[in-house]
Amino acid sequence: MRFRTVMALTGALALSLTTGCAKGDSVGSASDTVTYWLWDANQLPAYQACAKGFEQQNPGLKVKITQLGWADYWTKLTASFIAGTQPDVFTDHIQKFGQFADLKVLQPLDDLDIDASAYQPGLAANWQGQDGHQYGTPKDWDTVALFYNQKMAKSAGLSADQLNSLSWNPTDGGTFEKAIAHLTIDKNGKRGDEPGFDKHHVKVYGMATGGAGDSDGQTTWSPFTASAGWNYTDKTRWGTKYQYDSKTYQSTVKWYFGLAKKGYLAPFTDYSDGANPPNVQIAAGKAATAFDGAWMISTYAAAKGIKIGTAYTPTGPTGKRATMMNGLADSITKNAPNKAGARKWVTYLSSNNCQKTVGSYGIVFPATPDGTKAAVAAYKKKGIDVTAFTRPVADKKDFSTFSFPITNYSADVYALMRPAMQDVYANDAPVSGLSKTNKQINFILGQ
Predict the structure, then answer these.
(1) Which of 49, 235, 265, 369 is a Cys-bridge partner for 239, taking CB atoms 3.0 to 4.6 Å apart?
(2) Is residue 291 helix, strand or coil?
(3) What is the secondary structure of 157-213 as a DSSP string?
């Protein structure tokens, strides 16, 4: 799981970190052990394999890996910075990077001489702080595509080619909305585009819900806002001004959540990150399609009794398809007990050797091109076509990729946008209210 819930760091925590209350020199790993934290249980075997390779190349050094669930991971990590029990190395998320960099809990990695050209374009640059220092080594990447129930699509008369050629606009939804409407079925068997359709008693929604999308909409509205030409901030990285007050953004969000009012998109109440995320809605036969990330490929493929297909995100008003391209990194904590060992481990993690090993497990797309090739081959052996995720990275003519917004005070942005977006989705609040939220956010950023 890449991103679901980001917990805001409280003022007390920020004060503790910035005033040096976290002392890590005497607590943590021994000189012969490097501690490493990650959250994805699916990736644990791959990194255990990397650890074996690392230990063979570095006699006398051991890697102790700790895997925690997503929510526990960030809670315990932030607490460890205060208690001085932080790991030497941890898997970092771009959504947290701005906050961690500002709190100065990350160790600069400039001495590792990271070669940006050795990784997929843009991955290394995302981990450069405003001070010009590198704080993460590229680990992997992901994009977003449309997962769909092949049987339901066939029953609706929609071919794979048709689903791969959909387009949308905020006025009438284009062929994308028509497809989602036709995939929707009420309790009486009426489709969403047929006379007599009962939107209040839907048996199968055309599209599962991923929630309100909060501040980034990675697997919900972001493919639409980006293909409409909208950007989160005024700059690609370290923006100083958010743009949630944009007419383009607000008209797109109004259209997107309007699909729920029409009965095509599952309602907000259907979503639960832990119990009922989009893949569960698909597996239960409650929805025909869902936008989701590449890290979920194996999960959807494992759904019992259902054959899943994948399609590109739809073409938008800009004439291009769009998808967020997120990339994780490995970071060293500033007070890492074993910095020497941590540097060696992080260097190995970002090496082609480890990345090809990770790729061979067919769980994620590693950051190096060779690692990606290994992953594509591994997925192919499993009978899984991942073109919908890989083509957007290679085809810049028809696709555009974009990153999570990288700014200061990301936790505060999330804290403000989360309830505002939920109000729009769950309570049909006017999207114009997002302008007020945007003003509050920019005030925090000093605008």
Answers:
(1) 235
(2) strand
(3) T--HHHHTT-B--TTT-HHHHHHHHHH-EETTS-BTTSTT--TTSEEEEEE------
